[in-house]
Amino acid sequence: MNFSATVDVKTMLVAVRRGASLIRRGNLPILEFLRLSATSNRITVSGTNLDCWLDSAFDAETASGDVLVSGKELERALGLMPNGAAASLALEGSKLRITSGRVRFDLPTMDPADWPKFQDPEKPSTLRAQAKELMASLERLRPAICTESPRPYLMGVYLDFAQDRMVATNGHILGWEPGCWTLEDGGDAKPLILPIDTL
Known about the structure:
Blueprint: E1 3-8, H1 9-20, E2 33-39, E3 42-48, E4 53-59, E5 62-70, H2 71-79, E6 86-92, E7 95-100, E8 103-110, E9 127-129, H3 131-141, E10 156-160, E11 165-169, E12 174-178, E13 181-183, E14 192-195
Antiparallel strand pairs: 1-5, 1-6, 2-3, 2-5, 3-4, 5-8, 6-7, 7-8, 9-13, 10-11, 10-14, 11-12
Helix pairs in contact: 1-2
């Protein structure tokens, strides 16, 4: 396991905040970590809560390697460094050392081999939708979306492609909106629940 990079603090902080937004405290400590993977002086920051997966990439002055680092600790460390400054990251033992001027942080890491694997669907279908129209429909459904963790099967929006509609319920309110998407190449997609974290 190795990792080293020289980055712009402001640019990296934007990518880290995106990934850290998925972090939830739970029974799996690895979900509190972000994956930093670098190739050809480009770093990809990956985060997941197992319902939603997010990759955010940016260019770095130098970058190589792969490491898992505590997401909230990395966000906090970068947030305490001056915007526009350069920072160097280097793996030293089991800690990722971040330095910028006189500021230094040593953050806990894990082996990237332990990162959860994303399983691609056997027959993927691509949906196309206008972002504003889709978000407006989801906002109208928000009062009906369940937020109670003991009922995870209701915590999201059901996409019914056969009936071309979106449905949500919290057990008291039932809401639906017409679908505002098209299936690429006229494909056939199975219905699915879009989790609340994705929304």
